[in-house]
Specification:
By secondary structure, the protein is of the alpha+beta class. The protein is 31% helix and 25% strand.
């Protein structure tokens, strides 16, 4: 069906697609419902050292999965704040990525955890790191008649402390003004992924060990944090000015780093 009509839009959760259809901003010639495609049946499977989340898994199913909660807690934290419970009952993790919103809450933790998307199309299957999937607001590397069939999450190879954070204009259902995820590994690598502060979510890292070391000079840590957050290119809109976003990104990064280091210590103590 998608091959016959390349402009058709696939429907899985539909939480973004249906809004566009009702507003008239999206007018595809055909909508193809994927929920009964046998090959895309809802499943969360562990294959060797990878947790594979099929394209039709909704966020509430991901949140309830014990393996996701154990190995990817920051992703679960992000999924818990996506829309309302009604939206989470319909919205899929794969669809959240295909929508390619710069403010998507699940994108930063997926980037930090090194997620890979499995794609299927006329040319066969391929795997694309999420860091290479987004090309701009609402744009991805998906080819015509190509679908995301699964999100693959490699299990951490070493103890990791990770946290998701966001800032919104109000409590409750709202898009993020700024969102982020931070992880600190036992080997001293600190990774940040930022959203809503550029045309796409993006990943930066400190491999010097400076941010991971709580005893490092505060001035040196501040220098590294400012260098990482300088990669952002926020815009001004109804949610916040570009200047405010840039400053809050730094504030939230400091808080997230403290929490990620504390969680790493807790994981190490528990192990």
């Amino acid at each position: 069906m998608l091959q016959a009509e390349p402009a058709a839009r696939p429907l899985c959760g539909g939480t973004d697609l249906l809004v566009g259809l009702r507003k008239g901003t999206l007018r595809p010639p055909l909508v193809v419902d994927l929920k009964r495609v046998a090959e895309l049946a809802p499943a969360i499977e562990q294959r060797d050292r990878v947790l594979r989340v099929s394209a039709t898994i909704v966020l509430t199913q991901l949140i309830a999965d014990e393996r996701a909660r154990a190995h990817f807690p920051a992703l679960v934290e992000a999924a818990l704040v996506v829309g309302s419970i009604q939206i989470r009952n319909r919205a899929t993790l794969a669809g959240n990525m295909c929508n390619a919103s710069p403010a998507a809450d699940t994108a930063p933790p997926l980037l930090v955890y090194g997620a890979v998307l499995e794609l299927a199309g006329l040319a066969g299957r391929r795997r694309v790191p999420l860091a290479e999937f987004f090309t701009g607001p609402g744009r991805t590397v998906l080819a015509p008649a190509e679908l995301v069939t699964a999100v693959e999450l490699p299990l951490p190879s070493e103890p990791l402390g990770a946290v998701f954070g966001r800032m919104t204009r109000r409590r409750g259902v709202d898009l993020a003004t700024v969102n982020l995820c931070c992880s600190v590994s036992r080997s001293g690598v600190t990774r940040f992924a930022y959203g809503a502060v550029g045309p796409r979510s993006f990943l930066v890292s400190d491999e010097t060990g400076t941010l991971a070391d709580e005893t490092a000079e505060p001035a040196k840590q501040e220098e590294v944090l400012r260098r990482l957050t300088a990669e952002a290119s926020p815009i001004s809109n109804v949610r916040a000015s570009a200047e405010y976003r840039q400053q809050m990104l730094l504030v939230l990064s400091r808080r997230a780093l403290d929490t990620a280091r504390r969680r790493l210590a807790e994981v190490a103590d528990a192990g």
